[in-house]
Amino acid sequence: MSQRVLSSVLRARPNAILRRTATPALTIPQRFSSSDSHSQETFEQFSERYVAFFQGAQDLFEVQRGLNNCFAHDLVPSPGVVEAALRAARRVNDYATAVRVFEGIKEKVENKQQYQAYLEELKPVREELGIDTKEDLYIS
Predict the structure, then answer these.
(1) pTM
(2) In angstroms, what CA-CA distances link 69 with 29, 65, 72, 74, 89?
(3) Which of 63, 139, 52 is CA-nearest to residue 104?
């Protein structure tokens, strides 16, 4: 039955069907996802985005979600981002998260000297907010 229908359609309007099949589709498939918008992001743009995020975080869930996303990238956040995260953690009154930020930094850096450089640069903020590192809290 389908052959009869096809042959009758081809006899009725052969030019219209051939014209439709003869022109190739010029569509190029593209994949869109939410992470594609940040794929070409520079380190400065990354830092600005997370500083703005942490400045606007209003509850503990947002702060922890932001930290999780920030530390998931294959780079160490800038001291400005860490400072904004520390201030956000203290703003939502979660001291433990503020201490854990430094644990995350320690895991992300390549060596102890880089970690010490972060501690030195963030020392005024740590003193202002009253945040100790894990090493300060658990001295053997």
Answers:
(1) 0.70
(2) 29, 6, 5, 11, 15
(3) 63
Each residue's pLDDT tens digit in the chain (140 positions)?
666 665 665 666 655 555 555 555 565 655 544 555 556 889 999 999 999 999 999 999 999 999 999 999 989 999 999 999 999 999 999 999 999 999 999 999 999 999 999 999 999 999 999 999 988 888 75
Name which of 138, 80, 78 is nearest 114 in CA terms: 78
Residue 89, amino acid: A
Structure letter (DSSP) for residue 93: T
C-alpha 46/C-alpha 106 separation (Å) is 20
Determine the length of the chain. 140
Q: What angle do CA 78, 83, 88 make, to 5 degrees?
A: 130
